[in-house]
Amino acid sequence: MRRTFSAPRKIATLSAAALLGVAAAPATTAQATPDPKAPKNFVALSDVDPTIIQEIRYFTEHDFVGEPIDGYKKPLCILTEPAAKALHKAQLGLLKKGYSLKVYDCYRPQRAVDHFVRWAKDLDDQRMKPEFYPQVDKTRLFADGYIAEKSGHSRGSTVDLTLVKLPARPTRPYVPGEPLRACYGPQKDRFPDNSVDMGTGFDCFDTLAHTDDPRVRGAQRSNRDLLRGALSEKGFVNLPEEWWHFTYKPELFPDTYFDFPVSRRSLTGR
């Protein structure tokens, strides 16, 4: 049974004080807690390699939640310095082959992960289901591992990315409310993306997104292998369930989950 409490004496005392004209104590001005800052080991990827394309999805409404995610104050890729330098080395090799890396997400603050968790528990909000998880019941997102209360992205050395054939074509912006198309469909039927065909779109909650899914063949298989090969040579390890997900090893902060916001200001004044 839930216990309830009442405070009749407090109420009576306050009422008496008001009737007697007793002056109330001055209100204390609430001060916002300043956002935490990134350790000095974090950098903006664009400062290390400005040629890597950035399309930070969680700053936009085009994600599986359908709205900008908490903590993304700027469309900026932030990583630990070793991870950023390793991406730069991978990019140099890919540029010679006529490709560029494109990042969708990099460091992810804990408040963003908390946003994902709140969304996953709200079973009534399924507005983005037709694109990102058409074949997955939302009640299964935790059990199937699509959503978790902690993310390796919050440690700063994990990145979600793809390949773009050069010269890069522009990708049209997502229009909120537009008809959604399944992330696992043929490339011509998915939301347009200037990346090469990887077999699914980014953040596709489907087994077809598993890096070595045997149904992925031909050019799609070659593209996945090219991305994984270029990154593994520079110290990145792929998450088998997501072709786009890579972590630089050894991690600089293997046990720390940061919560500073994604913004230039997080990297200054340390």
Record the SSE blueprint.
Elements: H1 8-20, E1 42-44, H2 45-48, E2 53-54, E3 78-80, H3 81-96, E4 99-105, H4 110-121, H5 129-132, E5 158-165, H6 218-232, E6 236-238, E7 245-248
Parallel strand pairs: 2-4
Antiparallel strand pairs: 1-3, 4-5, 5-7, 6-7
State the helical fraction: 10-25%
Q: Specify Rg, calculated over alpha carbons.
A: 23 Å
Span of the ends, CA to CA: 49 Å
Mean pLDDT: 91
Give the percentage of residues in beta strands: 5-15%
Number of strands: 7
> What is the number of helical segments per DSSP (H or I, 4+ residues)?
6
What report would you give on this structure?
The chain has 270 residues and is of the alpha+beta class. Helices cover 24% and strands 11% of the residues. A five-stranded mixed β-sheet has the order 2-4-5-7-6, covered by helices on one side. The chain has a two-stranded antiparallel sheet with strand order 1-3. The longest helix has 16 residues, at 81-96.
